[in-house]
Amino acid sequence: MGNPATIAEKYSRYPDIHQAIALGYGTMATIRRRIASGELPRVKIIRDGRRKNIFDPVDLDRVLGARPEPVGPAAEVTALDAAVDDVVARAPRLSSAQLARLGSILDGGAR
Fold this sequence. Notes:
Layout: H1 4-11, H2 17-22, H3 28-36, E1 43-47, E2 50-54, H4 57-64, H5 73-90, H6 96-106
Antiparallel strand pairs: 1-2
């Protein structure tokens, strides 16, 4: 067996099943089905004190296709920022009174 630190470093870039889902490679059912069929190789390791299946990103791309746009919190923030920018670009100019009222509403003081 190799040095545990070297082994951990080698596999540190390999996502586990939850990370693969968050990266857009499919659902839990899809990934498990591909593992069961033998199409998707996995490496069984202990990470953070738990047994995990991890995947070589090359295998994920080959079997499940290159991932689309990333999903998860970072992608959601980017999509939300783009939507806000679009609304702002289309919005009419507001008066000082309207801006103050809107600021109060957004600050939780809607009445």
